[in-house]
Amino acid sequence: MGVRRFPEGYTLRVRLTLETVNEIGFSNPAAEYPEPTEPSYPAAVGMAGAPFADPNLKLVVLSLLLDAKQIDLGTPAQLASHVLGRPVDLEDEGYEIIPEAQDYLERYPLSDELLAAVEEIEFDGGGTAYRFAWYFWDGEDDVFDVKDLSGIELCRNLRSFSAISMIGNVDV
Fold first, then answer.
1. Reported pTM
2. CA angle, corner 76, sides to 166 and 65, nearest 5?
3. pLDDT band at 43 (very low <50, low <70, confident <90, very high)
C-alpha cells in the first residue's frame, strides 16, 4: 500500500497485491461541497406544447436541453414536489403520470435562445424528460409519441434528426 499527499491537498492512495492493482483512490479532505439546492423553476406559461403544436415534441426538446445542461429541473422528485407543493416519494407515486408535472413540462417557457441551442433531435423513449412526468415509464406504450412536427422549424440550428422510436406517421 502506498500513500502520496500533494501540496494542493489531494491524496493518492494505491493498494497492490503482487502484480495486481486492488485499489486506486484520490481524495481531498479539505474539499467543501455545498448542499444541493432546488433549482429556480420558471413559471409555466402558455398553451401545452407551445411553441410546438404537439406537447410531446416539446418533451423531446426538453430532454435534449436537459442533457445539454441548458435547463435544470433538479431531480424528478424535486420537480414533482415543486408542482404538487408537498414532498413526493417517487418509489410510491412514480408508477403513473403525475399530471401536474406533465403540465409543467408542457408549458415550460422556451426562449428563442433555448430553441437556438437545440442542434439535434432524437426521438427515443429513453429521453430524460419522461422521468419527470412519469418516473417509472417503461416506454412500451404510445403515450409520449409525437404526431405533429409543427414548430420544429423554430429550432433554427437543428443539424441532426434521429427517429429511433416514438414517432409514427408524421410528414417530415
1. 0.79
2. 55
3. very high
